[in-house]
Amino acid sequence: MSATTLDLREALQRYFGYTAFRGPQEEIIRTLLSGRSLMVIMPTGAGKSLCYQLPALLMPGTALIISPLIALMKNQVDQMQAYDIPAVFLNSSLSKKEYEEVKRACLRGEAKLLYVAPETLLSESFSEILHQLKVSFVAVDEAHCISEWGHDFRPEYRRIRHALRDIAPLPIIALTATATPRVQRDILENLEITDAVIFRTSFNRPNLYYQITPKRSQQATLKEIVQYIRSRPGQAGIVYCHSRRRVEEVASTLQANGIRALPYHAGMDAATRSRNQDAFLNEESQVIVATIAFGMGIDKPDVRFVIHYDVPKSIENYYQETGRAGRDGLPSDCILYYDYNDILKLDRFLKDKPASEREAIVFLLQEMAYFCETGQCRRKFLLQYFGESYEMDKCGGMCDNCRYPKKSFDGQAIASPILRTLAALDRFPLTPILDHVLGLLPEIGGKTFPTFGSLKGHHIDELKSYAAQLLVEGYIQRDPHDYSVLTLTEKGQAFLEQPGPIPLYPPYDRTPAPADEGMVEELILHDELLLEKLKDLRKKIAQERRVPPYVIFQEPTLIEMATQYPVRMEELERIPGVGPVKAQKFGQPFLDLIREYVEENDIERPVELIVPTQQKKQADWAEIIQSIDQRVPLPTLARRLGLSLEELLEKVEQIVFGAGVRMKLDYAVQTMIDPDRVDEAFDYFYEAEDDDIEKAMRALRGEYTYEELRLLRLHFHLSVA
Question: In the predicted model, what is the mean pLDDT of the chain?
Answer without folding.
Answer: 84
